[in-house]
What we know:
Elements: E1 9-18, E2 21-31, E3 36-40, H1 47-55, E4 62-67, E5 70-71, E6 79-82, H2 94-104, H3 109-122, H4 138-150, E7 156-160, H5 168-183, E8 187-191, H6 195-198, E9 203-208, E10 211-216, H7 218-224, E11 228-234, H8 237-245, E12 253-258, E13 263-267, H9 270-283, E14 288-294, H10 298-308, E15 331-342, E16 345-356, E17 360-365, H11 371-378, E18 386-391, H12 401-404, E19 407-410, H13 422-432, H14 437-451, H15 466-478, E20 484-488, H16 496-511, E21 515-519, H17 523-526, E22 531-536, E23 539-544, H18 546-551, E24 556-562, H19 565-574, E25 578-582, E26 585-590, H20 593-606, E27 611-617
Parallel strand pairs: 3-8, 3-9, 6-7, 7-8, 17-21, 17-22, 19-20, 20-21
Antiparallel strand pairs: 1-2, 1-4, 4-5, 9-10, 11-13, 11-14, 12-13, 15-16, 15-18, 22-23, 24-26, 24-27, 25-26
Amino acid sequence: MSASAGPAIRVRSLVKRYGTVEAVRGIAFDVAAGEIFGLVGPDGAGKTSTLQIIAGVADATSGDALVFGRPARAARLRTGYLTQGFTLYPDLTVAENIRYVGDLRLTPPETIARRGAHYLEIFGMAQFSDRLAEQLSGGMKQKLALACALVSEPDVLLLDEPTTGVDPVSRREFWDALAHLCAEGLTILVATPYLDEAERCARVAFVHRGEIYRLGTPSELRESLHARRLVVRVDDLQAAAQALGAAVAGDAIVDVQRFGDHLDVLASDPDAARAIVAGAMNAARIAVNEIRVDDPLLENVFVASMRALGERAPEVSFPARHEHREPRGEVAIGAERLTKRFGDFVAVDDVSFEVRYGEIYGLLGANGAGKTTTIKMLCGLLEPTQGRAQLAGARDHLRARQIRQRVGYMSQLFSLYDDLSIGQNLEFFAGVYDVAPEEAAAKIAWVLAFSGLEGKERDVTASLPGGWKQRVAFGSAIMHEPSVIFLDEPTSGVDPLARRALWGVIQALADRGAAILVTTHYLEEADQCNRLGFMIGGRLAVEGSPSEIRSRQTGHLLEFRVDQPQAAAALLARKRYDASLFGDRLHVVVDDVASAQPGVTGELESGGIRVLSTREARFSL
């Protein structure tokens, strides 16, 4: 992988129009050789169009996109491109997919074999070379797609939302692999809806309606907010959020966001905000357990930036017509020693937990951990091999009509009919769920408004970007006001602003008494749940509130800011430290801060790397 004195990618005054729609509106940026550069923005911001032009597979309407000084189309052999959809051949093996893509890129057969084996070894997939692509997990498919993109050893790699639908373990491994490749000199441009992934880029550009409105390192972007984050722990979160709602309009408090066991209060003046919070809680007679000041997240910057541009998530109240009669706190969903075997394979192994009315429970785990199989047993879609399921007060006949009418289910794999229009899908699900005709029109209008699709009900559903489709699917699953709701990865591919709006509706449903079981691969939003269960290898390994689970984590997390982040990450990897690269920072897990901090600092400085600052950070989920 070669280097260059100038930028690897140079974009100037880039414009792309589709008829009367201007998807890209004169953007300009450079990506340095050996840099990971992130594009972040909502659906329809122009990220994919920009990547397609740089990849040389689409022409710009005007402006320039250069790769190592050459027009993008002429530099295609130096560019690898991993598109947003699944681009592998499912009926070919892992090795055959790599060989086919290598042949298309005019790579010699012996080189394909050598490089393919090298990347499969790096990605931990060497033992799966003869497995069909359709039999791989989501994370393994993405690693294979990355290996295919790398087999021609490009100098530039373009990634369009590469980890959507990929579990947290595979996402971490995927990004560690990107950091390794970047250290070898590869230039990476990635579009992602996940702000925790954007934290791992050297620089980030926020894109909105085809224009770049913020660009800088993650640290620079956080500092530009001129605000701090107060983590407020109280017993009654719903009442606390309402009590603080009026304070957001003041100068000290910028934003209030509710999570599963705390409130996040974004404050321009932390001391003044602390006093406002304490006063509001005292007036509402709500006991405060903790107020802690922390750094803002990149997601805080993104949301604040979007609001400054006049963009807000739709604030459309759900037109609820019915009261849930189930007593809050009673068991709505129960797993009693659930086990499911498929032949000799144990998919779910002796799992027990409860979800109560008014509660949001997050079921987390890697692909293949048994989450979806567990949900199917709890819904009555699969018979357990052993154990019993409880659903909406029933222990038997879970598929009875009166039980199914009290349940909403948003599936991970199927939620909408792509060949129907948006309106036809909504009318179909209103009919399936027996929504009264006089209610259906209001519910359908709400889904369209909530999804930002008013006036587009005749559009074919297949034409929707993934994030919009998820919002329509979510609305379809709750139109009948179920008292028990299953959401299997509801925000996959949804941009941060829309994700916040969707979680606002989920919390409102729980406040009305619904029991909600949700799976997610986005661990930052797992904090939205009241309680969590981690599944590993078919078993429930950990359970508790987000704060309880974090408090059980052993060791300490040190954050180092250094002048050569990639070199520092490579050095610590050689020294066998548990370290991960996050933009211009390194996260290093250690047993003891007092002894480890001088040791890590010494290792870095002996390698010619200057340590700018060090602090102990808190573990994220």
